[in-house]
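Dock manganese (II) ion; give full complex structure.
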Amino acid sequence: MKFTYYGHSCFAVETKGVRLLFDPFISPNELAKAIDVEQIEADYILVSHGHADHIADCVQIARRTGATVICSWEIHEWLQKQGVTNTHPMNTGGKKSFDFGTVKCVVAQHSSSLPDGTYGGNPMGFVIIGERHFYYSGDTALTMDMQLVPQHAQTAFCVLPIGDNFTMGYEDAARAAHMIQCNKIIGVHYNTFPYIAIDTEIAIKHFEKTGLELLLPEIGATIDV
Ligand code: NI
Ligand code: MN
């Protein structure tokens, strides 16, 4: 499977010829100026919560590509009002099979409102059970609920925020990695804004100390996962 990083918490995973795009936030990201939003293809867009730094380009990409947007019930209702008709609403605890695999929605300890102030429902993480299993936590605090993740799937890699301030920092992300029993972590949600600036070398060394691998792909880079 291929993982492409688009900056902040936006990434794509290509599996079985299906392209999954997560938390599209590209055009407002100063660090992602080299990425052309118009060139991004998607069959599915998964939105963890309604904050602008996770949904900014969702309407535009969904309209252009016709991708199915998987999100909370409340975000689904909001997207319908923006003219995005191909949506699949879910909520925490629910799972559903799609052509690329199964999506299990799990707890994220965060908040969720849409850019216009509309309530966004529960923030969520996603466990994707498919060709290779993986977990994207969305924006979240470290939470004991993460101990349930390995009961849903033995993950090949996981995508966790490491930027602190609004979410887990790298220390809590390393604790999360042990809870979810996964030693290959792709770090996201760092360095986009001054609030979440971190020293990435320290973060990588911190992971190494406990036998974990922290991958921080360059924006625009594609890696095998
Ligand atoms: Ni957020
Ligand atoms: Mn965020």
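Observed: The longest strand covers residues 101-107.
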